[in-house]
Design a protein that fits this description.
Elements (H helix, E strand, L loop, with lengths): L2 H5 L7 H4 L9 H13 L22 H9 L2 E3 L10 E3 L13 H7 L11 H4 L3 H10 L16 E2 L7 E2 L20 H16 L3 H34 L16
């Protein structure tokens, strides 16, 4: 039985099924839950190197909450007079920490596989939100008959080649949401996908608001320019020019 025949039964959920608000205004509660899933589950292997703590303020957390999270980690300070670099508590301008010191340490901890950074994962993968949601929820209980995987790989029909080094990480009630939302596998996947969708484009809401302002102001200016044009050119366009030829003086010679 070939892999193509096996994969015919697997179809990735649509955006409506995944309940992902891609291209729309993201909800604060869902983003907060998604960050919680990332922090408690995904951050042990995957980094989010493009997101500073200050970006979370007003989106998923308050200023005090973001400061408290930043202070839980230590970062290198500026060299002192003796050239030594000391550690300091994190602050809002610091970026979310990497779980590993370098790529070599990440590979050594994951049997040679390098966990990718998730900052732009929604943009980097074909299918975007749908692909990530399908990947997180697409692990079967066991591989279908006829599928052979290399040691250390797990079967996932949505991953190219069907063999992925990452094992299933989302299980029902794995996290406890602060707002009491049931932490089902699909709910956690939906929330973390929405958070990653935001992380890939944190300025999306501000850009859309600015776009609406540009459309409104541009439309008003266009209407005003049309009125000014008609007002200024009306006398010229409605002007009637009469030509009276000179009267030739007639007479007998």
């Amino acid at each position: 039985m070939g892999s193509r025949t096996i994969l015919k039964d697997f179809r990735p959920p649509s955006v409506r099924q995944a309940m992902v608000n891609k291209g729309t205004r993201l909800t604060i509660n869902s983003l907060r839950r998604g960050f919680q899933v990332y922090r408690e589950v995904c951050s042990s292997c995957h980094s989010l190197s493009r997101i500073p703590y200050r970006s979370l303020v007003g989106v998923t957390h308050t200023v005090d909450e973001a400061k408290a999270m930043a202070e839980e980690n230590e970062y290198d300070s500026e060299p002192n007079d003796e050239g030594e670099i000391e550690k300091r508590p994190g602050k809002l301008s610091d970026y979310l920490p990497n779980p590993y010191k370098n790529d070599e340490a990440a590979r050594a901890a994951n049997n040679g596989a390098l966990p990718p950074d998730l900052s732009l994962m929604v943009k980097a993968r074909h299918g975007g939100c749908n692909y990530i949601f399908s990947l997180l929820t697409g692990y079967p209980e066991e591989a279908p008959p006829g599928v052979k995987l290399a040691d250390g790989l797990n079967f996932n029909p949505y991953f190219p080649g069907t063999g992925i080094a990452m094992a299933r990480v989302l299980y029902n009630e794995l996290v406890e949401y602060e707002d009491g939302t049931p932490a089902t596998t699909s709910q956690m996947a939906k929330d973390v996908v929405e958070f990653l969708n935001w992380a890939a484009e944190p300025e999306m809401d501000q850009r859309k608001k600015m776009g609406m302002k540009v459309l409104v102001i541009g439309s008003a200016l266009f209407a005003l320019s049309v009125w000014v044009k008609r007002y200024k050119w009306a006398p010229i366009k409605t002007r009637k020019i009469l030509y009276n030829p000179p009267v030739k003086a007639g007479g007998k010679h």
